[in-house]
Amino acid sequence: MSIFGLAFYCALAGNMLVQWGLLPPRKDPEKATPAFIVLFLVASAMAATVDGLMFRFVLTPLGLESLAPVVFVIFLFSAYFAFRAFLSVTGKTDRFRFDDRSFQLTLVLYAVAMMAGGRFSSIWLLMGGGASAALGYLAATRFLDDIMDRLDLEPVPAPFRGAPIRFISAGLMALAFAGVDAGFFSRFPG
Amino acid sequence: MEIVENSARNRSWAALAGLAPLLVFSNGLSIGLVLGVTFLVAHSAAAAVALLLPVRLGRSYTFFFSVLAAAVTVSMAASVVRLLDPFLFETAYRSMFLVTLTIPVLGASVMPVSMEEREHAIEDLVRGLGFALAIMSLGAVREFLSSGIISVNSRAPSSSLLPFAAQPAGAFIIIGLVAAGFRAIMRAAKRSEP
Amino acid sequence: MNKTKFDPTILIVIGSAVVMIALAGFTSAYAARKSSHYLSQIVDGAMQAPVRKSAWTTLRDGRILGRAVPGKGLAAYVVVARRTGKEYRAIASVDADGSVKKVYPLVSDSDSAFMRRLGVLFDRISQGRAGTDLSPLDSAIEPLIVDMLETITSLERARMEVLDGDR
Fold this sequence. Notes:
The structure holds 3 protein chains of 3 kinds. Chain A has helices spanning 3-11, 16-19, 34-62, 68-90, 100-119, 123-151, 163-183. Chain A is mainly α. Chain A has one domain (3-187). In chain A, helix 1 (3-11) runs parallel beside helix 6, helix 3 (34-62) crosses helix 5 and helix 3 (34-62) packs across helix 6. The N and C termini of chain A lie close together (9 Å). The longest helix of chain B is centred in the C-terminal third of the chain and has 27 residues, at 121-147. Chain B has one domain. In chain B, 74% of the residues lie in helices and 0% in strands. Chain B is an all-alpha fold. The termini of chain B are far apart. Chain C has one domain. In chain C, helix 2 crosses helix 3 (138-166). The N and C termini of chain C lie far apart (72 Å). Classes of the chains: A mainly alpha, B mainly alpha, C alpha+beta. Chains A and B meet through helix 4, helix 5 and helix 7 of A and helix 1, helix 3, helix 4, helix 5 and helix 8 of B.
Protein backbone atom coordinates (compact mmCIF):
# COMPACT_ATOMS: atom_id res chain seq x y z
CA MET A 1 0.00 0.00 0.00
CA SER A 2 1.33 3.44 -0.86
CA ILE A 3 1.68 6.02 1.89
CA PHE A 4 -1.13 8.08 0.28
CA GLY A 5 -3.42 5.07 0.10
CA LEU A 6 -2.58 4.34 3.72
CA ALA A 7 -3.36 7.90 4.82
CA PHE A 8 -6.69 7.95 2.97
CA TYR A 9 -7.61 4.49 4.22
CA CYS A 10 -6.92 5.35 7.87
CA ALA A 11 -8.72 8.69 7.62
CA LEU A 12 -11.86 7.37 5.89
CA ALA A 13 -12.66 3.68 5.43
CA GLY A 14 -10.67 2.48 8.45
CA ASN A 15 -11.54 5.49 10.59
CA MET A 16 -11.02 4.66 14.25
CA LEU A 17 -14.01 6.62 15.54
CA VAL A 18 -16.58 4.84 13.42
CA GLN A 19 -14.98 1.44 12.82
CA TRP A 20 -13.70 0.92 16.38
CA GLY A 21 -16.47 2.86 18.14
CA LEU A 22 -14.09 5.29 19.81
CA LEU A 23 -16.83 7.81 20.49
CA PRO A 24 -15.66 10.72 22.70
CA PRO A 25 -17.80 10.80 25.87
CA ARG A 26 -18.89 14.38 25.25
CA LYS A 27 -18.04 17.42 23.20
CA ASP A 28 -14.66 18.81 24.11
CA PRO A 29 -15.06 22.48 25.07
CA GLU A 30 -11.41 23.18 24.18
CA LYS A 31 -10.52 23.08 20.49
CA ALA A 32 -7.43 21.00 19.79
CA THR A 33 -4.41 23.27 19.37
CA PRO A 34 -1.85 22.61 16.61
CA ALA A 35 0.72 21.72 19.30
CA PHE A 36 -1.67 19.15 20.79
CA ILE A 37 -2.38 17.66 17.36
CA VAL A 38 1.33 17.31 16.56
CA LEU A 39 2.05 15.79 19.99
CA PHE A 40 -0.85 13.35 19.61
CA LEU A 41 0.25 12.27 16.12
CA VAL A 42 3.84 11.73 17.31
CA ALA A 43 2.62 9.75 20.34
CA SER A 44 0.35 7.64 18.10
CA ALA A 45 3.14 6.95 15.62
CA MET A 46 5.48 5.91 18.45
CA ALA A 47 2.85 3.78 20.17
CA ALA A 48 1.98 2.04 16.88
CA THR A 49 5.63 1.34 16.10
CA VAL A 50 6.59 0.03 19.53
CA ASP A 51 3.42 -2.01 19.99
CA GLY A 52 3.44 -3.37 16.42
CA LEU A 53 7.10 -4.44 16.46
CA MET A 54 6.84 -5.85 19.97
CA PHE A 55 3.74 -7.90 19.11
CA ARG A 56 5.01 -9.22 15.78
CA PHE A 57 8.67 -9.88 16.50
CA VAL A 58 8.82 -10.56 20.25
CA LEU A 59 5.49 -11.68 21.68
CA THR A 60 4.20 -13.80 18.77
CA PRO A 61 7.33 -15.97 18.31
CA LEU A 62 7.41 -16.63 22.06
CA GLY A 63 3.68 -17.42 22.24
CA LEU A 64 3.17 -14.49 24.61
CA GLU A 65 0.55 -12.64 22.52
CA SER A 66 -1.85 -12.51 25.45
CA LEU A 67 0.66 -10.40 27.37
CA ALA A 68 0.30 -7.56 24.83
CA PRO A 69 -1.95 -5.36 27.02
CA VAL A 70 0.44 -5.79 29.97
CA VAL A 71 3.41 -4.78 27.83
CA PHE A 72 1.54 -1.76 26.46
CA VAL A 73 0.46 -0.60 29.92
CA ILE A 74 4.04 -0.85 31.20
CA PHE A 75 5.33 1.02 28.12
CA LEU A 76 2.64 3.70 28.44
CA PHE A 77 3.21 4.34 32.14
CA SER A 78 7.00 4.28 31.74
CA ALA A 79 6.63 7.02 29.10
CA TYR A 80 4.24 8.93 31.37
CA PHE A 81 6.47 8.72 34.46
CA ALA A 82 9.51 9.75 32.36
CA PHE A 83 7.53 12.70 30.97
CA ARG A 84 6.47 13.68 34.48
CA ALA A 85 10.07 13.51 35.70
CA PHE A 86 11.11 15.71 32.77
CA LEU A 87 8.39 18.23 33.67
CA SER A 88 9.46 18.33 37.30
CA VAL A 89 13.08 18.97 36.23
CA THR A 90 11.96 21.86 34.01
CA GLY A 91 9.77 23.21 36.83
CA LYS A 92 6.47 22.73 35.02
CA THR A 93 3.34 21.17 36.51
CA ASP A 94 1.85 17.86 35.48
CA ARG A 95 -1.30 18.51 33.42
CA PHE A 96 -2.53 14.92 33.31
CA ARG A 97 -6.03 14.67 34.70
CA PHE A 98 -7.95 11.59 35.76
CA ASP A 99 -10.90 12.55 33.59
CA ASP A 100 -12.78 11.08 30.65
CA ARG A 101 -10.88 13.12 28.06
CA SER A 102 -7.46 11.83 29.19
CA PHE A 103 -8.85 8.30 29.43
CA GLN A 104 -10.32 8.55 25.92
CA LEU A 105 -7.01 9.72 24.45
CA THR A 106 -5.22 6.83 26.17
CA LEU A 107 -7.76 4.40 24.70
CA VAL A 108 -7.35 5.92 21.23
CA LEU A 109 -3.55 5.58 21.49
CA TYR A 110 -3.89 1.88 22.22
CA ALA A 111 -6.52 1.31 19.54
CA VAL A 112 -4.37 3.11 16.96
CA ALA A 113 -1.35 1.04 18.00
CA MET A 114 -3.30 -2.21 17.63
CA MET A 115 -4.89 -1.22 14.33
CA ALA A 116 -1.55 -0.30 12.74
CA GLY A 117 0.29 -3.21 14.38
CA GLY A 118 -2.25 -5.69 13.03
CA ARG A 119 -1.90 -4.49 9.45
CA PHE A 120 1.69 -3.46 8.87
CA SER A 121 5.09 -4.89 9.66
CA SER A 122 7.53 -2.27 8.40
CA ILE A 123 8.57 0.59 10.67
CA TRP A 124 7.58 3.30 8.17
CA LEU A 125 4.13 1.86 7.57
CA LEU A 126 3.61 1.43 11.31
CA MET A 127 4.56 5.05 11.96
CA GLY A 128 2.56 6.34 9.00
CA GLY A 129 -0.42 4.13 9.85
CA GLY A 130 -0.39 5.24 13.50
CA ALA A 131 -0.17 8.94 12.66
CA SER A 132 -2.81 8.75 9.87
CA ALA A 133 -5.23 6.81 12.06
CA ALA A 134 -4.81 9.40 14.83
CA LEU A 135 -5.35 12.24 12.36
CA GLY A 136 -8.45 10.49 10.96
CA TYR A 137 -9.78 10.11 14.50
CA LEU A 138 -9.25 13.80 15.33
CA ALA A 139 -10.89 14.86 12.04
CA ALA A 140 -13.90 12.57 12.60
CA THR A 141 -14.26 13.90 16.17
CA ARG A 142 -14.35 17.42 14.78
CA PHE A 143 -16.95 16.42 12.14
CA LEU A 144 -19.12 14.85 14.81
CA ASP A 145 -18.86 17.95 17.05
CA ASP A 146 -19.88 20.13 14.09
CA ILE A 147 -22.86 17.87 13.38
CA MET A 148 -23.88 18.11 17.05
CA ASP A 149 -23.55 21.92 16.95
CA ARG A 150 -25.81 22.01 13.90
CA LEU A 151 -28.31 19.68 15.53
CA ASP A 152 -28.51 22.03 18.53
CA LEU A 153 -30.38 24.41 16.20
CA GLU A 154 -32.92 21.74 15.21
CA PRO A 155 -36.06 20.70 17.12
CA VAL A 156 -34.76 17.25 18.09
CA PRO A 157 -37.39 15.26 20.08
CA ALA A 158 -36.61 15.39 23.81
CA PRO A 159 -35.74 11.70 24.35
CA PHE A 160 -33.19 11.88 21.52
CA ARG A 161 -31.34 14.94 22.83
CA GLY A 162 -27.80 14.46 24.10
CA ALA A 163 -26.24 10.99 23.99
CA PRO A 164 -28.87 9.20 21.81
CA ILE A 165 -28.65 11.66 18.92
CA ARG A 166 -24.86 11.61 19.27
CA PHE A 167 -24.85 7.83 18.81
CA ILE A 168 -27.26 7.98 15.88
CA SER A 169 -25.17 10.72 14.20
CA ALA A 170 -22.05 8.60 14.70
CA GLY A 171 -23.95 5.65 13.18
CA LEU A 172 -24.88 7.65 10.09
CA MET A 173 -21.25 8.77 9.77
CA ALA A 174 -20.17 5.13 10.06
CA LEU A 175 -22.62 4.20 7.32
CA ALA A 176 -21.17 6.87 5.03
CA PHE A 177 -17.61 5.73 5.76
CA ALA A 178 -18.60 2.10 5.13
CA GLY A 179 -19.88 3.22 1.73
CA VAL A 180 -16.51 4.81 1.00
CA ASP A 181 -14.87 1.52 2.04
CA ALA A 182 -17.06 -0.53 -0.29
CA GLY A 183 -16.72 1.96 -3.13
CA PHE A 184 -13.00 2.60 -3.17
CA PHE A 185 -10.94 0.93 -0.50
CA SER A 186 -11.74 -2.76 -0.76
CA ARG A 187 -8.86 -2.93 -3.19
CA PHE A 188 -6.41 -2.15 -0.39
CA PRO A 189 -5.03 -5.24 1.27
CA GLY A 190 -5.00 -5.82 5.02
CA MET B 1 -3.10 16.32 39.34
CA GLU B 2 -6.73 17.12 39.45
CA ILE B 3 -9.79 15.01 39.88
CA VAL B 4 -12.76 16.08 37.86
CA GLU B 5 -16.05 15.30 39.51
CA ASN B 6 -18.98 14.53 37.26
CA SER B 7 -22.62 14.30 38.08
CA ALA B 8 -23.97 10.75 38.30
CA ARG B 9 -26.11 11.18 35.18
CA ASN B 10 -23.29 12.57 33.07
CA ARG B 11 -21.06 9.75 34.30
CA SER B 12 -23.59 7.16 33.17
CA TRP B 13 -23.78 8.63 29.66
CA ALA B 14 -20.02 9.06 29.56
CA ALA B 15 -19.66 5.43 30.63
CA LEU B 16 -22.01 4.38 27.82
CA ALA B 17 -19.83 6.27 25.33
CA GLY B 18 -16.76 4.74 27.00
CA LEU B 19 -18.25 1.29 26.44
CA ALA B 20 -18.97 2.07 22.78
CA PRO B 21 -15.88 0.24 21.42
CA LEU B 22 -16.95 -2.97 23.16
CA LEU B 23 -20.56 -2.51 22.11
CA VAL B 24 -19.44 -2.01 18.51
CA PHE B 25 -17.26 -5.14 18.55
CA SER B 26 -19.99 -7.19 20.24
CA ASN B 27 -21.88 -8.26 17.11
CA GLY B 28 -22.76 -11.79 18.17
CA LEU B 29 -23.56 -13.80 21.28
CA SER B 30 -20.22 -15.63 21.46
CA ILE B 31 -18.09 -12.50 21.08
CA GLY B 32 -20.50 -10.62 23.37
CA LEU B 33 -20.00 -13.27 26.07
CA VAL B 34 -16.23 -13.13 25.67
CA LEU B 35 -16.12 -9.33 25.84
CA GLY B 36 -18.68 -9.11 28.65
CA VAL B 37 -16.84 -11.59 30.89
CA THR B 38 -13.46 -10.01 30.08
CA PHE B 39 -14.84 -6.58 30.90
CA LEU B 40 -16.31 -7.84 34.18
CA VAL B 41 -13.08 -9.41 35.41
CA ALA B 42 -10.93 -6.46 34.30
CA HIS B 43 -13.27 -3.88 35.83
CA SER B 44 -13.56 -5.82 39.10
CA ALA B 45 -9.78 -6.35 39.32
CA ALA B 46 -9.07 -2.65 38.70
CA ALA B 47 -11.70 -1.50 41.20
CA ALA B 48 -10.56 -4.00 43.85
CA VAL B 49 -6.87 -3.07 43.55
CA ALA B 50 -7.67 0.66 43.61
CA LEU B 51 -9.71 0.11 46.78
CA LEU B 52 -7.33 -2.25 48.57
CA LEU B 53 -3.96 -0.61 47.96
CA PRO B 54 -2.89 1.63 50.85
CA VAL B 55 -3.54 5.35 50.37
CA ARG B 56 0.11 6.18 51.18
CA LEU B 57 1.15 4.63 47.87
CA GLY B 58 -0.14 7.74 46.15
CA ARG B 59 -2.72 8.32 43.46
CA SER B 60 -0.46 7.83 40.40
CA TYR B 61 1.08 4.55 41.56
CA THR B 62 -2.29 3.18 42.67
CA PHE B 63 -3.69 4.05 39.26
CA PHE B 64 -0.75 2.32 37.54
CA PHE B 65 -1.05 -0.89 39.59
CA SER B 66 -4.84 -0.98 39.15
CA VAL B 67 -4.57 -0.65 35.36
CA LEU B 68 -1.80 -3.27 35.42
CA ALA B 69 -4.12 -5.61 37.34
CA ALA B 70 -6.79 -5.07 34.71
CA ALA B 71 -4.23 -5.81 31.96
CA VAL B 72 -3.11 -9.03 33.66
CA THR B 73 -6.71 -10.26 34.04
CA VAL B 74 -7.43 -9.40 30.39
CA SER B 75 -4.29 -11.32 29.42
CA MET B 76 -5.42 -14.37 31.40
CA ALA B 77 -8.94 -14.15 29.96
CA ALA B 78 -7.46 -14.03 26.45
CA SER B 79 -5.34 -17.12 27.18
CA VAL B 80 -8.42 -19.00 28.43
CA VAL B 81 -10.33 -18.08 25.26
CA ARG B 82 -7.36 -19.26 23.19
CA LEU B 83 -7.38 -22.58 25.01
CA LEU B 84 -11.11 -23.00 24.42
CA ASP B 85 -11.24 -21.88 20.79
CA PRO B 86 -8.12 -20.62 18.96
CA PHE B 87 -10.22 -19.21 16.10
CA LEU B 88 -12.39 -17.22 18.51
CA PHE B 89 -9.19 -15.83 20.06
CA GLU B 90 -8.02 -14.70 16.61
CA THR B 91 -11.36 -13.00 16.03
CA ALA B 92 -11.62 -11.35 19.43
CA TYR B 93 -8.12 -10.71 20.79
CA ARG B 94 -7.87 -7.07 19.69
CA SER B 95 -11.21 -6.12 21.19
CA MET B 96 -10.38 -8.09 24.33
CA PHE B 97 -7.08 -6.24 24.75
CA LEU B 98 -8.91 -2.95 24.27
CA VAL B 99 -10.99 -3.70 27.41
CA THR B 100 -7.93 -2.82 29.54
CA LEU B 101 -8.00 0.85 28.59
CA THR B 102 -11.74 1.49 28.20
CA ILE B 103 -13.04 4.50 30.11
CA PRO B 104 -15.07 2.52 32.71
CA VAL B 105 -12.03 0.34 33.55
CA LEU B 106 -9.72 3.37 33.78
CA GLY B 107 -12.38 5.15 35.86
CA ALA B 108 -12.52 2.18 38.24
CA SER B 109 -8.70 2.30 38.55
CA VAL B 110 -8.75 5.74 40.17
CA MET B 111 -8.15 5.46 43.91
CA PRO B 112 -11.24 6.50 45.92
CA VAL B 113 -10.21 9.48 48.10
CA SER B 114 -13.02 10.22 50.50
CA MET B 115 -14.80 7.80 52.83
CA GLU B 116 -17.96 8.36 50.79
CA GLU B 117 -16.21 7.30 47.58
CA ARG B 118 -14.91 4.18 49.32
CA GLU B 119 -18.41 3.33 50.49
CA HIS B 120 -19.61 3.63 46.89
CA ALA B 121 -17.00 1.15 45.66
CA ILE B 122 -19.52 -1.71 45.83
CA GLU B 123 -21.81 0.30 43.57
CA ASP B 124 -18.94 0.52 41.07
CA LEU B 125 -18.63 -3.25 41.06
CA VAL B 126 -22.38 -3.65 40.49
CA ARG B 127 -22.19 -1.06 37.71
CA GLY B 128 -19.44 -3.18 36.12
CA LEU B 129 -21.77 -6.18 36.18
CA GLY B 130 -24.49 -4.09 34.52
CA PHE B 131 -22.08 -2.96 31.79
CA ALA B 132 -21.00 -6.56 31.20
CA LEU B 133 -24.63 -7.64 30.84
CA ALA B 134 -25.22 -4.74 28.42
CA ILE B 135 -22.31 -5.91 26.24
CA MET B 136 -23.57 -9.50 26.20
CA SER B 137 -27.20 -8.60 25.53
CA LEU B 138 -26.31 -6.18 22.73
CA GLY B 139 -24.26 -8.96 21.13
CA ALA B 140 -27.28 -11.28 21.28
CA VAL B 141 -29.67 -8.61 19.95
CA ARG B 142 -27.37 -7.70 17.06
CA GLU B 143 -26.85 -11.35 16.15
CA PHE B 144 -30.61 -11.89 16.16
CA LEU B 145 -31.23 -8.81 14.03
CA SER B 146 -28.48 -9.65 11.55
CA SER B 147 -28.96 -13.41 11.17
CA GLY B 148 -32.38 -14.21 12.60
CA ILE B 149 -31.04 -16.57 15.27
CA ILE B 150 -29.02 -16.41 18.49
CA SER B 151 -26.44 -19.14 18.98
CA VAL B 152 -23.16 -19.58 20.86
CA ASN B 153 -22.09 -21.65 17.88
CA SER B 154 -21.55 -18.89 15.36
CA ARG B 155 -21.60 -21.43 12.51
CA ALA B 156 -25.22 -22.40 13.08
CA PRO B 157 -27.31 -22.17 9.90
CA SER B 158 -29.16 -18.89 9.69
CA SER B 159 -30.85 -16.58 7.27
CA SER B 160 -29.88 -13.01 6.64
CA LEU B 161 -32.42 -10.70 8.32
CA LEU B 162 -30.87 -7.25 8.76
CA PRO B 163 -27.12 -7.57 8.07
CA PHE B 164 -26.66 -3.86 8.79
CA ALA B 165 -27.09 -4.64 12.54
CA ALA B 166 -23.74 -6.47 12.58
CA GLN B 167 -21.87 -3.43 11.27
CA PRO B 168 -20.46 -0.63 13.48
CA ALA B 169 -23.08 1.75 12.05
CA GLY B 170 -25.80 -0.65 13.17
CA ALA B 171 -24.34 -0.77 16.69
CA PHE B 172 -24.33 3.03 17.02
CA ILE B 173 -27.89 3.37 15.75
CA ILE B 174 -29.23 0.54 17.93
CA ILE B 175 -27.55 2.05 21.03
CA GLY B 176 -28.96 5.49 20.16
CA LEU B 177 -32.49 4.11 19.66
CA VAL B 178 -32.34 2.03 22.87
CA ALA B 179 -31.06 5.03 24.85
CA ALA B 180 -33.81 7.26 23.43
CA GLY B 181 -36.45 4.60 24.16
CA PHE B 182 -35.16 4.24 27.72
CA ARG B 183 -35.29 8.00 28.21
CA ALA B 184 -38.82 8.24 26.81
CA ILE B 185 -39.99 5.50 29.19
CA MET B 186 -38.33 7.24 32.16
CA ARG B 187 -39.95 10.54 31.22
CA ALA B 188 -43.36 8.92 30.86
CA ALA B 189 -42.94 7.18 34.23
CA LYS B 190 -41.98 10.48 35.89
CA ARG B 191 -44.99 12.24 34.37
CA SER B 192 -47.38 9.55 35.56
CA GLU B 193 -46.14 9.90 39.17
CA PRO B 194 -48.72 11.69 41.37
CA MET C 1 18.69 12.49 63.82
CA ASN C 2 15.55 12.19 61.76
CA LYS C 3 15.33 8.58 60.55
CA THR C 4 12.73 7.73 57.92
CA LYS C 5 11.30 4.27 58.38
CA PHE C 6 11.47 2.07 55.26
CA ASP C 7 8.03 1.21 53.92
CA PRO C 8 8.03 -2.29 52.38
CA THR C 9 4.55 -1.84 50.87
CA ILE C 10 5.81 -0.81 47.45
CA LEU C 11 8.14 -3.83 47.31
CA ILE C 12 5.27 -6.16 48.21
CA VAL C 13 3.07 -4.59 45.52
CA ILE C 14 5.83 -4.78 42.87
CA GLY C 15 6.59 -8.38 43.87
CA SER C 16 2.91 -9.34 43.57
CA ALA C 17 2.70 -7.62 40.17
CA VAL C 18 5.77 -9.50 38.91
CA VAL C 19 4.35 -12.84 40.10
CA MET C 20 1.00 -12.13 38.41
CA ILE C 21 2.69 -11.08 35.14
CA ALA C 22 4.84 -14.23 35.21
CA LEU C 23 1.73 -16.34 35.77
CA ALA C 24 -0.04 -14.59 32.87
CA GLY C 25 3.06 -15.22 30.72
CA PHE C 26 3.08 -18.95 31.52
CA THR C 27 -0.66 -19.17 30.81
CA SER C 28 -0.17 -17.38 27.50
CA ALA C 29 2.70 -19.63 26.42
CA TYR C 30 0.72 -22.75 27.40
CA ALA C 31 -2.36 -21.52 25.48
CA ALA C 32 -0.18 -20.74 22.44
CA ARG C 33 1.30 -24.26 22.52
CA LYS C 34 -2.13 -25.88 22.80
CA SER C 35 -3.47 -23.62 20.06
CA SER C 36 -0.62 -24.58 17.71
CA HIS C 37 -1.27 -28.26 18.38
CA TYR C 38 -5.00 -27.80 17.69
CA LEU C 39 -4.45 -25.84 14.47
CA SER C 40 -1.91 -28.31 13.06
CA GLN C 41 -4.39 -31.13 13.82
CA ILE C 42 -7.15 -29.22 12.02
CA VAL C 43 -4.93 -28.85 8.95
CA ASP C 44 -3.82 -32.49 8.98
CA GLY C 45 -7.41 -33.64 9.50
CA ALA C 46 -8.78 -31.48 6.68
CA MET C 47 -6.08 -32.69 4.31
CA GLN C 48 -6.91 -36.24 5.44
CA ALA C 49 -3.31 -36.95 6.20
CA PRO C 50 -2.84 -37.57 9.91
CA VAL C 51 0.63 -38.91 9.21
CA ARG C 52 1.72 -35.39 8.22
CA LYS C 53 2.34 -34.39 11.86
CA SER C 54 2.71 -30.76 10.83
CA ALA C 55 4.52 -28.08 12.80
CA TRP C 56 2.44 -24.91 13.16
CA THR C 57 3.75 -21.33 12.86
CA THR C 58 1.48 -18.37 13.60
CA LEU C 59 2.04 -15.62 11.04
CA ARG C 60 -0.97 -13.21 11.18
CA ASP C 61 0.12 -11.58 7.93
CA GLY C 62 -2.93 -9.91 6.41
CA ARG C 63 -5.56 -12.66 6.08
CA ILE C 64 -3.03 -15.46 6.50
CA LEU C 65 -3.31 -16.86 10.01
CA GLY C 66 -0.45 -19.31 9.91
CA ARG C 67 1.39 -22.17 8.25
CA ALA C 68 1.51 -25.90 8.90
CA VAL C 69 4.67 -27.57 7.60
CA PRO C 70 4.88 -31.38 7.62
CA GLY C 71 8.12 -33.35 7.90
CA LYS C 72 7.54 -34.49 4.32
CA GLY C 73 5.00 -33.08 1.87
CA LEU C 74 3.43 -29.79 0.92
CA ALA C 75 3.18 -26.87 3.32
CA ALA C 76 -0.32 -25.54 3.98
CA TYR C 77 -1.51 -22.04 4.88
CA VAL C 78 -4.65 -21.25 6.86
CA VAL C 79 -6.60 -18.30 5.49
CA VAL C 80 -9.18 -16.45 7.60
CA ALA C 81 -11.21 -13.63 6.03
CA ARG C 82 -13.69 -11.71 8.18
CA ARG C 83 -16.30 -9.12 7.42
CA THR C 84 -18.91 -7.77 9.86
CA GLY C 85 -19.00 -10.83 12.04
CA LYS C 86 -18.97 -13.31 9.17
CA GLU C 87 -16.00 -15.53 8.48
CA TYR C 88 -14.45 -17.65 5.77
CA ARG C 89 -11.69 -20.12 6.69
CA ALA C 90 -9.79 -22.33 4.31
CA ILE C 91 -6.55 -24.26 4.02
CA ALA C 92 -4.41 -23.73 0.94
CA SER C 93 -1.71 -26.31 0.24
CA VAL C 94 1.21 -24.86 -1.73
CA ASP C 95 4.12 -26.19 -3.73
CA ALA C 96 7.74 -25.13 -3.34
CA ASP C 97 7.38 -21.96 -5.44
CA GLY C 98 4.37 -20.79 -3.43
CA SER C 99 1.61 -21.61 -5.94
CA VAL C 100 -1.62 -22.88 -4.41
CA LYS C 101 -2.18 -26.53 -5.33
CA LYS C 102 -5.48 -27.19 -3.60
CA VAL C 103 -7.98 -25.38 -1.40
CA TYR C 104 -9.72 -27.13 1.52
CA PRO C 105 -12.63 -24.99 2.79
CA LEU C 106 -13.03 -25.18 6.57
CA VAL C 107 -15.86 -22.80 7.44
CA SER C 108 -17.91 -20.32 5.48
CA ASP C 109 -20.87 -18.36 6.78
CA SER C 110 -23.34 -19.39 4.11
CA ASP C 111 -25.87 -16.72 5.11
CA SER C 112 -23.43 -14.04 3.93
CA ALA C 113 -23.42 -13.54 0.16
CA PHE C 114 -19.99 -11.95 0.45
CA MET C 115 -18.47 -14.99 2.19
CA ARG C 116 -20.20 -17.45 -0.15
CA ARG C 117 -18.78 -15.65 -3.15
CA LEU C 118 -15.36 -15.31 -1.50
CA GLY C 119 -15.23 -19.09 -1.13
CA VAL C 120 -16.18 -19.69 -4.75
CA LEU C 121 -13.68 -17.16 -6.09
CA PHE C 122 -10.82 -18.23 -3.80
CA ASP C 123 -11.10 -21.80 -5.03
CA ARG C 124 -11.46 -20.72 -8.66
CA ILE C 125 -8.72 -18.06 -8.84
CA SER C 126 -6.18 -20.07 -6.85
CA GLN C 127 -6.60 -22.97 -9.31
CA GLY C 128 -6.45 -20.61 -12.32
CA ARG C 129 -9.87 -21.83 -13.51
CA ALA C 130 -12.36 -19.68 -15.37
CA GLY C 131 -16.02 -19.61 -14.42
CA THR C 132 -19.15 -18.66 -16.31
CA ASP C 133 -21.19 -17.33 -13.38
CA LEU C 134 -20.57 -13.70 -12.49
CA SER C 135 -21.61 -11.61 -9.50
CA PRO C 136 -21.55 -7.84 -8.83
CA LEU C 137 -19.47 -8.71 -5.74
CA ASP C 138 -16.62 -10.10 -7.86
CA SER C 139 -14.92 -6.77 -8.51
CA ALA C 140 -14.76 -6.09 -4.76
CA ILE C 141 -13.66 -9.60 -3.79
CA GLU C 142 -11.09 -10.38 -6.50
CA PRO C 143 -8.46 -7.88 -5.24
CA LEU C 144 -8.70 -9.43 -1.75
CA ILE C 145 -8.09 -12.90 -3.16
CA VAL C 146 -5.19 -11.73 -5.32
CA ASP C 147 -3.69 -10.13 -2.20
CA MET C 148 -4.13 -13.36 -0.21
CA LEU C 149 -2.52 -15.45 -2.96
CA GLU C 150 0.39 -13.01 -3.30
CA THR C 151 0.93 -13.03 0.45
CA ILE C 152 0.96 -16.85 0.52
CA THR C 153 3.45 -16.96 -2.38
CA SER C 154 5.80 -14.42 -0.80
CA LEU C 155 5.65 -16.16 2.59
CA GLU C 156 6.36 -19.58 1.08
CA ARG C 157 9.21 -18.27 -1.08
CA ALA C 158 10.72 -16.52 1.95
CA ARG C 159 10.51 -19.80 3.89
CA MET C 160 12.12 -21.76 1.06
CA GLU C 161 14.92 -19.20 0.78
CA VAL C 162 15.65 -19.59 4.49
CA LEU C 163 15.64 -23.39 4.09
CA ASP C 164 17.97 -23.19 1.07
CA GLY C 165 20.26 -20.88 3.01
CA ASP C 166 20.42 -23.37 5.88
CA ARG C 167 21.39 -26.24 3.56
